[in-house]
Amino acid sequence: MFDYDFMRYAFIAGVFIALICSVMGTFVVARQTSFFTHTLSEIGFSGASFGIFIGISPLAGMLLFTSASALLIGLSGERLGRREASISVFSGIFLGLGILFLSLSDKQANYATSILFGSIVGIDQSDIEVLVALSIFLLVIITLLFKRLAYNSFDSQGAQYNQRLNKTISIIFLVMLALTISITAQIVGALLIFVLLTIPASATKYFAHRLHQMIILNFIFILFGVWFGLYLSYLTDWPVSFFITVIEALIYGAALLKEHIANHQK
Amino acid sequence: MKPILTVQELDLVIPNRTLFSKLSFEIPQGALTCITGENGVGKTTLVKHLLQDLTSNYTAHTHFAVSRDEVQYVPQHRSIDDEYPLCIRDFVAFGLKKRSFFRHKKENEAKLAQILAETKLTQIQIQPLGRASGGEKQRAYLAQALCADPKLLILDEATASLDTTNKHELLRLLKQVMQQHGLTILFITHDPELIEMYADYELHLENQRGTLISKEAK
């Protein structure tokens, strides 16, 4: 399996994706902005096809669109991102725009599939370099601002009054989320990115209550999902996103089952 | 004693309504002052406005004897549901101001342990906050605020969702930490029993004005 370059790259990418998604996913779930995250990944799809359309790279287009939207949402208040109606409007418009840009750029339809659902065969060395560089950049910011980001995510009302520059922290978080989505979309695709950001983090809630334990467990869940998914995909030639989603969903199912049993024993 | 907060001739207008006009009062240091008044009189709006002035250093009508970092505000509503996963200890630790993990680890841990003990949360510190009772949640909010070494602590309707026993327990705890930490406490409430028993002063807001009444707390 590791004779193929793209498989080695995919496994390496998995480690970095797990590193950033474990922290960002824990915060996303704490902020209860899973659906905004989903919308942001659709905006990412739109950005990627825009990138193809005007001839810059899909990643650049994605970064452009998601960061711009994150800034917009951050400045207008995150509440907008929690409103169901505005989420539906944004989702719809950006998916529509994505299709438009793709059709204007006369690329084949399978290009859309690979942006939306990811493709491991598509990863080459330059992709992995960009991914590692952006991941390290994100990890540095996470390290520097960890406690502020945690306060902002886990106790938004408390942080609003008692943390200096709290609004700036919110905006920084949203831009970091935009970066995370753009980076991760290369492997699992724009639509399934939110699988990695929300499902494992929702499962860890039932197993761990210390912040560092939650993040470590989340890392394990994500890395296991990505690696095992890649392996199964290699064996069966079925799409890797399918396996990752199923594995993460099973982990979440197990968490709910564990919680259910624990509640009944009381 | 020098007041911790002086408000002079403050006009506070929200869309379509004047909440206060030419409002003036002083809040004494080192005491517990209850802010009282009918629902809708603008207690919370006033406090938030004063904090806003402090944050933006606008001193035309409001003068604090402390800096913004020395004020902790405990809001009335927090979105902590049953499934809120984070343990009490980590929630409380968000209040700590010295954030460097390596330089301040020992200092922070010692302080956290002391505050958890004072607020009687030591036993349940690794339980998820979502599973804590109403009284325990309020103590956790208080503990988080104490971690920031405030000089002025403002609590908004902290006893609103508590039963009688827990209310009195929280107020006794407040008076105790006020002594130990040398705090000034502002407490928004409309519970006459608590005001009677624990308030050193009452700031009563009515008809767009405020009157400070000295109380003999028991």
Keywords summarizing the entry:
heterodimer, A: 266 residues, mainly alpha, ABC transporter involved in vitamin B12 uptake, BtuC, B: 218 residues, alpha/beta, Rossmann fold, 6-stranded mixed beta sheet, 3-stranded antiparallel beta sheet, 6 helices
Low-confidence stretches of chain B: none
Q: What is the fourth-level CATH superfamily of chain A?
A: ABC transporter involved in vitamin B12 uptake, BtuC
Order of helices and strands of chain B: EEEHEEHHHEHEHEE
Strand content of chain A: under 5%
Count of helix runs of chain B: 6
GO molecular function, one term (chain B): ATP hydrolysis activity
Keywords (chain B): ATP-binding, Nucleotide-binding, Transport
Organism (chain B): Ligilactobacillus apodemi DSM 16634 = JCM 16172
Pfam families (chain B): ABC_tran
What does this structure look like?
- The complex is a heterodimer of chains A (266) and B (218).
- Chain A has 266 residues and is mostly helical.
- Chain A has a single domain, classed as ABC transporter involved in vitamin B12 uptake, BtuC, CATH 1.10.3470.
- The longest helix of chain A is centred in the middle third of the chain and has 30 residues.
- The mean pLDDT of chain A is 88.
- By secondary structure, chain B is of the alpha/beta class.
- Chain B has one domain: P-loop containing nucleotide triphosphate hydrolases (Rossmann fold), CATH 3.40.50.300.
- Chain B has six helices and nine strands, in the order βββαββαααβαβαββ.
- In chain B, strands 5-6-7-3-8-9 form a six-stranded mixed beta sheet, with helices on both faces. In chain B, strands 2-1-4 form a three-stranded antiparallel beta sheet, with helices on one face.
- In chain B, α3 packs antiparallel against α4.
- The mean pLDDT of chain B is 90.
- At the A-B interface, α7 and α8 of A face β5, α2 and α4 of B.
- Chain A: Keywords: Membrane, Transmembrane, Transmembrane helix, Transport.
- Chain A: It is a multi-pass membrane protein.
